[in-house]
Description:
The chain is an alpha/beta fold.
Amino acid sequence: MREVNVQDITDAVREMAIDVNLHLSEGLVDDLAKALEREESPLGREIIERIIDNARAARDKQLPACQDTGTAVVMAEIGQDVHLVGGDLTEAINEGVERGYKEGRLRMSIVGDPIRRVNTNTNAPAVVHTFIVPGEGVKISFMAKGSGCENMSRLKMLNPADGEEGILRFIEEAVIEADGRACPPMTLGVGLGGDLEQAALLAKRALFRAPLGAPNPAGHVADLERKILARVNATGVGPMGMGGRVTALAVHVEVAPVHISSLPLALNVDCHAHRHRSVEL
Ligand code: SF4
């Protein structure tokens, strides 16, 4: 059985926490540049240009691309033939978050209790999801999730009879309601099927798909992604909610088997920063 020391996971989380906040991915910046060609609104174009300038300035000056450096969301895929040694996995992840946010001089945004609301001053704990997968690999994915966009996320137990139009309308209405508060151009993660919590997790996992805009391998799901993207970009919300054609850069839909009388739909909204990375150990 392969052994992986959790210290390596701490180091990986620390590096990703700093990296995602200081360096918006080149692929994302390229996609924003391509969006300029589609945006007809002069103000919308100017906003996209400023977002690109801001991303480049953050990279050059080694500063966070946004003041909200986010909730640390970690997806840990652990091979079932791996033995984790050297400590507790969750503690290791949280140590990586704390070190990354302190050493990267990133804003601490987490309160330890939703009622008392006292800052932990470490940005830990992270929201951690673990998955046992076949093999000897360990894949750690990290996302810095801003609250502006997370707060615009939605979940609804649709009726199967609502069908495709019900799905499209729910997402369209959520995006219109989000308006500029989700800092568009957005990326939308959609979870469809399973039960209430599985749909929500599918939607978050959908945001980790790379590269941005890669279609779901199932043709009928990819068709739905295209329809949602067209519908959302027809709302006119536009960059930062100032009007325009480019409201979303991409829509990723993940699906799961579901009860005959259920249609759970979760929408996880991400902002233009779309900060995530993965490493394999
Ligand atoms: S939603 Fe995104 S871009 Fe807007 S403030 Fe939050 S992290 Fe920054």
